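Quick one: Aminobenzoyl-glutamate utilization protein B from Halolamina pelagica, structure tokens please.
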Amino acid sequence: MSKQDLFDEIEAERDWLTDVSEQLWENPEVALQEHDSAALLQDALREEGFTVESGVAGIDTAFVARYGDDEPVVGTMGEFDALPGMSQAAKAEREPIAEGAPGHGCGHNLFGTGSLAGAVAVKRAIERGDAEGSVVYLGTPAEEVGAGKVYMIQDGAFDDVDAVVSWHPDWINAPNKGSCLAVDSFSIEFTGETAHAAAAPEAGRSALDGVQLLGTGIEYMREHVADAVRIHYVVTEGGQAANIVPEEAAMEVMVRAPDRDSVETVSDRVRDAAEGAALMSGTDVDVTQTTGMYGVLPNYALADSIRANMDAAEFPLTEEQEAFAAELKETLDDPSYAGVPPERRDAAADSAMFTDPIDAPDEDATGSYSTDSGDVSWTVPLGRFRAATWPAGTPAHSWQAVAAGKDLGTAAMLFAGKVVAGSLYDLLTDEELLAEARAEFEERKGDREYESPLPEDADPYELTDR
Ligand SMILES: [Zn+2]
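--- reply ---
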């Protein structure tokens, strides 16, 4: 069997895959409420002959679909949650379908379906006897509120998987070789004594004082942390009226750094500062960790295999799609081409869709974002790439990204499916590649064993209450 046969398999399913992706786009569901979306993908996998385990890690919409009993086990991940308030028609002008309703501003309808395409093509290769091993599709919900995958890891969903190849919509076709920031998030609540602020202030203990003192503590702390550490906070509750001493006040704090150890050290200092603020203000404090994630461990062996598959797979953009992309691109206010190397920026600026595969633009770089894929990359060798879903220069979480997600983005979805399929097939048929990916994973991990960054009693459903 040739690589082209694998790609043709996906092209032959173009109508079916487009229909799945379109159904997800038409019915956008936000994090942890992706019931119809998860069901649609699970049904498709079941019908194809995968065994599906749903409700993984106590999350209704998390699932693992598996085909095969042999080793090695290769996997891909599909996200499918939408963003609140991002409703938008598939038009080159701002026009919500339903004001305030969710929309697929991050292209996860395509993400979930592209990975489905890849898993199905590999499954059929195994079924025909063209490859030996098993393939899993990990349905990973709640990416937009973080940590869905962390719960799935905790539950052992990745335990027997040897390597994972995954992607994300973007406006370039490139593998990832970069890392990103590890993070901890906290919800911190102070409780004081309410009193009339003029008549009996001595009887009151202001919860807002606790919040402000912790904020001040964090400001002083900034000077004494490593340069790369970031601490952000907002006040989520500050009292009812100026003449009432606030009984309740709360804040949300995030700590980020390139390495997990720094995050944990600074997080401990934030916890101490919260205790100090409570002592100073005569209040009680309750610190709840709401999320925790690792930074990404890149895997160059997998990234290089992905890059080779990008050159082999064609990008099936139609003339109509290209014309719509040009129209949509016109609406971008100030497109940034910083995502590609300087010598390619003019080419990107001149194209409606920038579909030429490029080398990883983020080699050795640390992106200023966090993702629960970081935890996956510490659990199993993970290859990641981006596919040109949106017109060149389109930011994620924009109405243009939603507009592109219905029809235009299906070209990237099919392309991504081929690249996932090609890379997983390589892993099943080329022992050396898998060994290399594993060796690199072990080397980059070093002595640090992955430990879940979430507290033991963490509840995934608390994520949506924030
Ligand atoms: Zn996303």
